[in-house]
Write a structure and sequence with these properties.
Layout lengths: L19 H10 L3 H12 L3 E4 L4 H13 L4 E5 L6 H14 L4 E3 L3 H11 L8 H20 L4 E3 L16 E4 L5 E4 L7 H11 L51
Parallel strand pairs: 1-2, 1-4, 2-3, 4-6
Antiparallel strand pairs: 5-6
Helix pairs in contact: 3-7, 5-6
Bound molecules: iron/sulfur cluster.
């Protein structure tokens, strides 16, 4: 049996942080990604951190954040199944901006038991197994760090998939106890992301040059073909078109 989640992830104390009405007023004032980030870092200080999976959007938002707050906190989820290219860009970004990434690992006992009972590549066997693997390797470590924060920053964009099509620049994250989620480039297009990286010669994940438009775990992500959706390479063997790992769900 897979061990239960032993991480302490109690979000109860955050439930009253902001009302939706207050968040609506904040959104009405913000015009640019930099406006949102300035507001976020002035408001939350060291209780806000940027989540990075080292996709192109993360390169952009990281660059914006450092210009506003050189001491900002960054975290990442190391599932143990990432591509070498992802570690390489993490290293390049850490050195360029002097960032000390807070790397969250899955709980050893849960991974060991999952692999022992379900197999090393369990995710290919069923959607249930895939979700279990994402739960243990991603969702629990994310919950662990988010339960210590008042807010987090993402690189989400609205046109990535339908689950994200209603996301706002600043929103209440009901999946994580109502803490604040800041999505500064939520309105950006894919082309804007690529232009920002190119114009500033930013470090980016070299998987992008091989057709990977969404960065995930190595066994679960492939390059996309011409004309395919930008997230079509994630869990490509599954038929559901609204695929998420449970980190960013519709609310
Ligand atoms: S993306 Fe694949 S390898 Fe990574 S946590 Fe999810 S199922 Fe596991």
């Amino acid at each position: 049996m897979i061990p239960p989640n032993n991480y302490k992830t109690n979000f109860d104390h955050y439930l009253q942080l902001y009302t939706q009405e207050e968040i609506d007023k904040v959104n009405a004032r913000l015009k640019t990604p930099e406006d949102a980030l300035r507001w976020a870092y002035e408001t939350f200080g060291d209780k806000i951190a940027k989540a990075s999976s080292f996709g192109p959007e993360d390169s952009v938002v990281t660059d914006m954040i450092i210009k506003i707050n050189p001491k900002a906190r960054f975290f990442t989820l190391d599932t143990g199944r990432l591509n070498q290219e992802t570690y390489d860009v993490m290293d390049a970004i850490a050195k360029k901006y002097n960032i000390n990434f807070e790397v969250m690992f899955p709980e050893t006992a849960a991974v060991e038991e999952m692999v022992r009972t379900k197999g090393i590549n369990l995710f290919y066997d069923s959607v249930e197994n895939r979700k279990l693997c994402c739960e243990i390797r991603k969702v629990r470590p994310l919950n662990k760090i988010l339960s210590t924060l008042d807010a987090w920053v993402t690189g989400l964009r609205r046109d990535q998939n339908e689950n994200r099509s209603h996301a706002a620049m600043v929103e209440l994250d009901h999946l994580h106890g109502g803490i604040v989620k800041v999505n500064p480039i939520i309105e950006w297009t894919w082309d804007q992301v690529l232009s920002y990286i190119k114009e500033r010669n930013l470090p980016y994940n070299k998987l992008l040059d091989r057709g990977y438009t969404s960065i995930g775990c190595e066994p679960c992500t492939r390059a996309i073909k011409p004309g395919e959706d930008l997230r079509a390479g994630r869990w490509w063997w599954e038929s559901d078109t609204h695929k998420e790992c449970g980190l960013h769900m519709k609310h």
